[in-house]
Amino acid sequence: MAKKRDGREGGMYWDGVIEGMPVFTVVAPLERVKILFQTRRAEFQSIGLLGSFNKIVKTEGVLGFYRGNGASIARIVPYAALHYMAYEQYRRLIIHGFPGIGGGPILDLVAGSFSGGTAVLFTYPLDLVRTKLAYQVNN
């Protein structure tokens, strides 16, 4: 998490969201093939990585690589917001509840772990939608 406390927390949040969207879009083809491998789609596992790319292009076109990408991008905004908000709240609770801890990497580790878990808990349905969309294959 960003450590700057200069009053630009909202700006840093939106900067991260805007920077994250192109990354998800660039990685989307690999994510799609990964999901097809993980879900044990036999027709994709038997032909390997390059064969899977070719099969998607032939059966679904280039846009087939981006199936589920919209849900993935839609998940970024609430995930980042919840993660950032929860991190600050958990950090504050830990500092007030355990004054002997002070600052440092342990505080950041615990607050980051709890905030990441909180964000995933609330955005998991969107992740499930993304996976189900990416799992579908046109024949």
UniProtKB/TrEMBL annotation:
Membrane topology is: Multi-pass membrane protein
Supply the name of the protein: Uncharacterized protein
| UniProt organism field | Ilex paraguariensis (yerba mate)
Q: In which compartments does the protein localize?
A: Membrane
The protein's matches in PROSITE patterns, at most eight in alphabetical order, are given as: SOLCAR
Main subcellular location of this protein, as a coarse class: membrane
Q: Which UniProt keywords apply?
A: Membrane, Repeat, Transmembrane, Transport
Q: Which SUPFAM superfamilies match?
A: Mitochondrial carrier
- One cellular component GO annotation, for this chain's record? membrane
The top of its lineage is:
Eukaryota, Viridiplantae, Streptophyta, Embryophyta, Tracheophyta
Q: Give the signal peptide, or none.
A: none
Q: Does the keyword Cell cycle apply?
A: no
Repeat (Solcar) positions are: 7-93, 103-139
User: To which protein family does this belong?
Assistant: Belongs to the mitochondrial carrier (TC 2.A.29) family.
